[in-house]
Amino acid sequence: MDADHWRRIASDALALLLAASCPGCDRGGTLLCDRCRMQLRADPHEVRTPHGLAVHAALRYEGVPARAIRRLKEDGATLLARPLGAALGAVLRPRAGDALIVPVPTSRASFRRRGYRVPDLLVRRAGLEAHRNLASARLTDDQRGLGRAGRARNVAGSMRATAHGRGGVVIVDDVVTTGATLDEAARALSAAGFTPVCAVALASTPRIRDTVNSSLTDSDMAVRGD
Ligand SMILES: [Zn+2]
Question: Per the database record, which ranges form the Phosphoribosyltransferase domain (predicted)?
Fold first, then answer.
């Protein structure tokens, strides 16, 4: 390739960078500033699904992490999958052991809209292998705006395992809200012979959302769209 070609690539890359802004603080000219990058370091904590499956979450879905995750999920900022994948990996790697890492399936509509599967992408960016052993068995309503019971009803029976097998599995999702999606994934994998060991999520939403005085906005709730 000639020098002109490389100059064009460099100038395109520079234009992209100048048009970028940090998802955490909106500072221009950077895909993620150093200060906000620090806030994407894993802060491991454990929550439980309604059926009692342990979920190890890397980040809290608020502030800088929430804005970075929304930009990855809704604005196509796939470069953010690297720092976010690193946070996921810090929690996932020590728990995976011999278990298969199985991401929750992405609905066909979400995949068409984004062109990528967020949980799978995060696992790969963490340097780990994602096994797509789950598929959507039927369409579900949008989880947005549904409460705990509604979400559980909505996802019940919505997944199927793509193959039978044995051994431990660790289920991965991007954002855990009520945990209903992870329970459904565990049900489908158990029915196919696997043993769900635990789940790992990139981020957990604050449990306060279940109270009347929830401080979360509608757009915070809107992220768990599939
Ligand atoms: Zn920033």
Answer: 168-205
